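To: structure subgroup
Subject: Chain for Friday's discussion

All,

I'm putting the inputs and outputs inline so they're searchable in the archive.
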Amino acid sequence: MEVALSAKLLRKGETVSAQDIALSEKWFSRLPKDLIDDPQTVIGRRMLRSVNAQTPLTSSMIGDPVMFKKGKIVKIVCIHDTLNISTLGVAEEEGIFGTTVKVRNISSNKVIHGRVIGDSIVKVDI
C-alpha cells in the first residue's frame, strides 16, 4: 500500500509542507485505521506530536492549523442573512481553525466568543 511518510523529523506544533512528506510503498501486518495515503490532506496542517523520519502518518498525528497567536489583531465578523458587520479585536488566546476563542473587541473593550473561520478571522453568531 502507498502511504504518506514523514520525510524528516517533524516536531509537535510544526506546520507540514510538501517537502516534509514522502510517498512510499509499505507492507503492514496490521493496517492502522487512520493511515494517510494522500499527502494533500496533510500539507498546511500542524503536527499534534513529534514523529521521526520515515514514520507512516496517521490522521491522529495531524491537527488543524493555527490561524493566529494570542495578542494578534483579528477581524471579527457577524453575518446574518443580508446583515454583514465587522470590526477589529485582539485575540485573547491562540486561534486554531474551527475552535471557539475569546477575542477582545477594540472598540468596546469587551471580551466576546467566536469561531475561527480563517486566517485572523473570527465569526460571532447572533
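Points worth raising on Friday:
Residues 66-123 form a domain with the SH3 type barrels. fold (CATH 2.30.30.760).
The CA atoms of residues 61 and 103 lie 28 Å apart.

D.
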